[in-house]
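Structure request: EscI/YscI/HrpB family type III secretion system inner rod protein, Pandoraea morbifera.
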Amino acid sequence: MLPSIVSLPPQSLPSMPTDATSAVLAAEPGANVSLESRFLDAVARLSADFEGERQGIADAVRGTDASDPAAMIRLQTQISDYSLQVAMVSTLARKSVGAVEALLR
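Returned structure:
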């Protein structure tokens, strides 16, 4: 993950839920919840998580001392992690849409 020269406390790292899709897929099949509504709920939760993380980064930018190299490295790492997460979700969404379009043809 991070280079060994960078030591960050866990609270400074972004907290992305890793089991967002497992929560959607874990709903009981007998429940009266459609796949579409479970998907939309998962997307809404993911969007809220990203917005919370973006707001946390914005707050960190305002509160970071630009003359402190360690603080700047933490901020840069946080921004980089957020950017990678957004790019990954974007790619997964694009690939999923492509797969559904291929199935519908």
